[in-house]
Automatic annotation (TrEMBL):
Stretches the record annotates as Disordered: 111-165
Alphabetical list of InterPro entries matching this protein: CBM25, Ig-like_fold
Protein name per UniProt: Carbohydrate-binding protein
Domain of life per record: Bacteria
Annotated Carbohydrate binding module family domain residues: 23-103
Compositional bias segments (type: Basic and acidic residues): 113-123
Pfam families in alphabetical order: CBM53
GO molecular function term, any single one: starch binding
Comp. bias intervals (Low complexity): 125-156
């Protein structure tokens, strides 16, 4: 059964986001049984769904007493993880694996926008609109002058032609 990030913390397994979606990059942290047993090298074995589709072994980097790896989420099925050391010892949560629910859409990062940024954005939008309006008016004026010049030239040719007869 897929869980959220905190459910495996007691086993030394954590993931950087509480909700994960397709396209997200998450950091996996491991300081579980293998690390406690003195493992020098740890791999995260990942796969998606009940059949462990797109299985991969991902080498984890040691950072003091924790191993970590960044994973790009490629499927909307549950993300399954087990850990293996260089001695072929496994931590698979007593055959239950470490499974995390994956949503179909990437989690949106909340953006905090300051009052100054909002003011700058409004000013920029107004300036852009003003420039666009002036540009459109200039194009219209040029088009009108051009049309007048063509009419004048055409009527001049018509008069010449009429007077020649």
């Amino acid at each position: 059964m897929a869980r959220t990030k905190q459910d495996y913390a007691d086993n030394g397994v954590e993931i950087s986001k509480s909700t994960i979606g397709v396209g997200d990059e998450v950091t996996l942290y491991y300081k579980g049984l293998l690390v406690q047993s003195g493992a020098e090298t740890v791999f995260a074995h990942i796969g998606y769904g009940e059949n462990w589709d797109d299985k991969a072994f991902i080498p984890m980097e040691r950072d003091d007493d924790v191993f970590k790896a960044t994973i790009k989420i490629d499927h909307s099925d549950d993300l399954n993880i087990a850990f293996k050391d260089s001695g072929d010892n496994w931590d698979n949560n007593s055959w239950a694996n470490y499974s995390f629910k994956v949503s179909k859409k990437a989690a949106k990062a909340a953006k905090i926008v300051s009052k100054e940024e909002k003011t700058e954005k409004k000013a920029s939008t107004k300036s852009t609109k003003s420039s666009e309006t002036k540009s459109a008016a200039s194009k219209k004026s040029t088009a009108t002058k051009s049309a007048s010049a063509k009419k004048t030239a055409a009527s001049g040719r018509t008069k010449k032609t009429s007077s020649e007869k």
